Amino acid sequence: MVRRASPNFGERRGGARPDLVVLHYTAMPTAKAALERLCDPDCEVSAHYLISRQGVTYQLVEECKRAWHAGAGAWGAVTDVNSRSIGIELDNTGAQPFPEPQMAALEALLPEVMGRWAIPPERVIAHSDMAPDRKFDPGVRFDWRRLALRGLSVWPCRGGTGTNALAKRRFHAAADAFGYPAGDLATRLRAFRLRFRPADDGPLTLQDVAALEDLARRFPVDRADHRA
Questions:
Q1: How far apart are alpha carbons 174 and 7 in whole angstroms?
Q2: Confidence of residue 168 (pLDDT cuts 50, 70, 90)
Q3: Which domains can be identified in the chain, with CATH numbers?
Q4: What is each CA distance from 84 to 16, 144, 213, in whole angstroms?
Q5: Burial class of residue 131, CB neighbours in 10 A (0-12, 13-18, 19+)
Q6: In terms of Cα–Cα distance, which of 154, 68, 152 is closest to 113?
Q7: Residues assigned a catalytic role
Q8: Strand pairing category for 9-11 and 20-25
Q9: If you average pLDDT over residues 176-189, what whole number do you get?
């Protein structure tokens, strides 16, 4: 762990405690460039952690403070995501795989963060999950299933095939229950597939619906123990 203090933080509003982890990619060419931006007071952006491609973890903001990484968006009833989350930036442009040293460092960091704040795996989300109308990170190259197999995120257990007349309604209902912000079908489907079915495109299918319904049933976003 390398400490590199960023001036870009504040107090968590309303006495909030973090109960989410939001993963990002930096979309910058190097970790050095990302560090400079995340620590530049004129940029007004930061994260709690940055992990380089070589697996070096930088702590920029103390976990008890509110970093400025999420921006506008929501996850379930949470609309001030910055006040309720830990932000982790991954040194990646979005165009390449996430290298093994970086993934290993993330898998070492996440259990510590989740343990300190009692954050369950379903509350480890993508930036694109909570802001699906404007964000794509950490993108199609990120291995969410790998995290889920280690108990550090979640993955659907079932799917279906074909289509039916109720598919859109079922998909929206499941998206609400799992946590996605309100939006049109195309936006929500894109966000879901970015994380859970990155190789797929085209119209909504029952496989999408069944997978999201499975997630919503097992991991409803606004259970009592996650409410403010």
A1: 39
A2: very high
A3: 2-149 (3.40.80.10), 167-221 (no CATH)
A4: 6, 21, 25
A5: buried
A6: 152
A7: 89
A8: unpaired
A9: 97
